[in-house]
Amino acid sequence: MSKNWPLWEVFVRVKNGLSHRHAGSVHAADAKMALEAARDTYTRRMEGVSLWVVPSASIIASDPGDASELFEPAVDKVYRHPTFYSIPENVKNI
Amino acid sequence: MRDPSLFDYACRLGDDSLILGQRLSEWCGHAPMLEVDLSFANVGLDLIGQATHFLKLAGGAEGAGRDEDKLAFHRDVLDFKNCLLVEQPNGDFAQTMARQFLFSNYQELLFRQLCSSANLTIVAIAAKAVKEVAYHVRLANEWMVRLGDGTAESHARTVEGLDWMWRFADELFEVDSTVESLIASGVACDVRKLRSEWDARITKVLRDATLDVPKARRVTKGGRVGHHSEHLGHLLTEMQFLQRAYPDSQW
Question: Closest chain B residue to A45 measured between Cα atoms?
Fold first, then answer.
């Protein structure tokens, strides 16, 4: 068994209506304790209204070596940004 | 308005929180893991916040011009009214957690009752603090289960820690003439009535933690009237040093 507790990724919802954002990670022996460690580490200054913890080992990450094929093709596709039409002046949020 | 009984009672409530808060802050930078370090610091700060409010109330009830800082940093050991449990040394992690487990479970039941005190300042403090303490209970209960039902070593250490703390539990539920008069006026909580629920909570967690309820032993008490263990003086030397050496210096 490893000497260290497993690592958990922490996601914090800043307020209702917003999505959970990755805040960092904590070490904890199990899921319940991970939630408490996350509360103590990442929400002590009123940063959130909801918490998720996920075992870091469950995260499937992209390989940095694949970055050129995964992300570079998007570089010259500016037409994918929704910036090619004008927004009526009286529309505040879109 | 001078009210010696209220002064005494508010000091007891405030000193419990203050001394335990100071004890927990001794872990700062020394806990086994960063996460644990932070959780002790958080709990300690909650407790010191409660102490600030209770001692402010005490200062007003005393009517001698002492504010919460004067009471915290310029009072001598014999004038402290905290229970003996909270001044017990941290020992190892398991001993600290055993102390927290016994105390937080008591404090949550107490603050719940104080939410309907006849003294509105006490109501306000308790209503805010009861949420903090509910979390302290959750944290301590979870840790007790993991330590007790963990490895052979964590189990053994928790048994020892619990054994150290157990003889100070009865004092929490003691009522003397000061409290008696305040119970009659609806200000204080009759802690005797909390005992059976506390026992039930403690027993349940200990069962989950595969720990036995320690055997009853000679009860040690006296904190409420200023008869403390040798440990409190040492704690105060450190806590009060700055204000004693540089009176009234500001942060």
Answer: B42
CATH number, domain A7-59+66-80: 3.10.20.520
Contact B146 A33 (CB under 8 A): yes
Which range has the worst mean pLDDT, A62-71, B79-88, B154-163, B196-205? A62-71
Please write down the long-range contacts of B203-206, taking CB distance under 8 Å and 24 or more positions apart: B205/B101, B205/B141, B205/B144, B205/B145, B206/B144, B206/B148, B206/B162
- Interface residue B50 vs chain A (CB under 8 A): no
**Chain A residues lying within 8 Å of B97, measured CB to CB:** none
Tell me the percentage of chain B whose pLDDT exceeds 70. Answer: 100
Grouping H, G, I as helix, E, B as strand and the rest as coil, residue A8 is: strand
**Interchain CB distance below 8 Å, B42 and A40:** yes
- Using alpha carbons, select from B187, B46, B22, B190 the residue that is nearest to residue B109: B190
Residue in B39, B135, B138 nearest the CB of A37:
B39
The minimal CB distance from B139 to the residues A26, A36, A44 is found for A36
> Which of B251, B246, B239 has its CA nearest to residue B73?
B239
pLDDT for A36: 95
Q: Do B39 and A5 touch (CB under 8 A)?
A: no
Cβ contact, residue pair B34, A36, below 8 Å: no
Q: Whole-angstrom Cα distance, residue B61 to residue B48?
A: 20
Q: Give kind and range of the element (H or E) at residue A23.
A: strand A20-27
Question: Is pLDDT at B25 greater than 90 in this prediction?
Answer: yes
Q: What CATH code would you report for B4-245?
A: 1.20.1260.10
- Please list every residue in chain A whose beta carbon sits closer than 8 Å to the beta carbon of residue B39: 36-37, 40
Cα-trace Rg, chain B: 18
Query: Is this prediction's ipTM beyond 0.85?
Result: no
Mean pLDDT of chain B: 96
**Cβ contact B167:B219 at 8 Å:** yes
The whole-number pLDDT of residue A1 equals 45
pLDDT of residue A2: 58
On the CB side of B191, CA atoms within 13 Å amount to 22
Asked if residue B187 lies in contact with residue B179, where contact means CB atoms within 8 angstroms, the answer is: no
